[in-house]
Amino acid sequence: xxxxxxxxxxxxxxxxxxxxxxxxxxxxxxxxxxxxxxxxxxxxxxxxxxxxxxxxxxxxxxxxxxxxxxxxxxxxxxxxxxxxxxxxxxxxxxxxxxxxxxxxxxxxxxxxxxxxxxxxxxxxxxxxxxxxxxxxxxxxxxxxxxxxxxxxxxxxxxxxxxxxxxxxxxxxxxxxxxxxxxxxxxxxxxxxxxxxxxxxxxxxxxxxxxxxxxxxxxxxxxxxxxxxxxxxxxxxxxxxxxxxxxxxxxxxxxxxxxxxxxxxxxxxxxxxxxxxxxxxxxxxxxxxxxxxxxxxxxxxxxxxxxxxxxxxxxxxxxxxxxxxxxxxxxxxxxxxxxxxxxxxxxxxxxxxxxxxxxxxxxxxxxxxxxxxxxxxxxxxxxxxxxxxxxxxxxxxxxxxxxxxxxxxxxxxxxx
Length: 415
Prior knowledge:
By secondary structure, the protein is mainly alpha-helical. The chain has helices spanning 17-48, 53-81, 84-103, 107-135, 139-174, 182-203, 229-258, 263-283, 293-310, 317-331, 334-344, 351-379, 382-401, 404-409.
């Protein structure tokens, strides 16, 4: 892997490095928390207004639809312009989407908000991840900085749902109404509209890396990367594991609603998952030198398959919370390892587009899978959704085991 660029902020400048990384993580937290809060509030609003699992699945799918089409253009844009310009545009789009839900909470407006916030968060994530990956010095440093960066979404997946759930349950009461009334949902939507601006305040002072100069002035294409077997295997494993996040995000609100749990209880169960994912990522940087990506990912897939088998059988909210914590611990280890391998097998000039390919893969799944989950939930029940995806993940652990070959040979020059 090529060395660190002289202007890289996380390793070349010890005085500024920790603060620079903290700003990036904080911006990641705010932007993802906005989308995570909307992902809890909008399906609960739909369920309360008589929409079924299929409509909820469609609504959740829209958070990923725009990312499917915008990922590669966003990756190329990040490769050309760096960090701040992509993030500023993402903040504007996310704010517009969430503000529309505040002004006129309606199912179709929530669909628009899902499209805007999903696309904005995806584009910003590509720019943030590209920036951090270029700033890393070697493979160990990649695992370390991506572990720290991945804490952001984990924290936000706790703060967003929990805060949104509390506002839904209590803001209406504070304003003289009742729990989960219109004011409660509007307050939750207003929170999601405020957070993107906080993200920009965190990121705007981050120092840019110098742009990469392409031979002939023409940026290369990312599509040839798919010719590499390790890249294809990595994307398959990432798709399977990202489906587990989608299943958990979709099934827990539906299952909790069926069992009569309040919005704050459902949000806390989802939040427990996020806290566990954040906690395990806090320890990953300390263990970065001892970890091997393929071993961590394989173990996570096996543990996830077992937890998915027992999750729907849990008899209470507390038991579901325990499963949520264990699942968060397992899946929380995955993203830093995937991102580390992705940067090791990708040329620097294609980092943004390689991240975009990964995002396209998982979000194409996220578009189709919630609708499939919704249909299956109506026909056979949401428990079967858990068991089916768990079985696929268990079978897919063989592909993760195969990544051990790439861990010895992968480098930017190999593809």
